[in-house]
Design goal:
The chain is α+β, with helices and mostly antiparallel strands and 106 residues long. It is 30% helix and 19% strand.
């Protein structure tokens, strides 16, 4: 099973109304076909009444194995149904990769 599918399967435990897992590895300096950088957009009633940090901690706990062994970067967009609707059912775009440390930039 690939990492993207594993993430999708595990996050079903949050009973999401919307879930999108996007492999953004191709935007980074990694070999072709890598699964190391992900963006997760998840809308769940289980986030109601929780601060952003608590939501992220909840997701990170579910994905602890992937974070420890496979994932280099994980962008989380965790929303309630009300927030998702208020945001036009969209999330923010990921910023471009800088391609290494800032000291390497000219």
């Amino acid at each position: 099973m690939n990492i993207k599918t594993s993430i999708e399967n595990k996050l079903q435990s949050l009973q999401p109304q919307f879930l999108e897992v996007i492999n953004e590895s191709y935007k980074h300096a990694v070999p072709a076909g890598s699964e190391s950088h992900f963006k997760v957009i998840i809308v769940s009633d289980q986030f109601n009444g929780k601060r952003l940090v608590a939501r992220h901690q909840q997701v990170n706990k579910i994905l602890a194995d992937e974070l420890a062994h496979s994932i280099h970067a994980l962008a989380l967009h965790t929303m309630t149904q009300e927030e998702w609707a208020g945001n036009g059912e969209q999330s923010n775009e990921s910023p471009p990769c800088l391609g290494g440390s800032k000291t390497e930039q000219t």
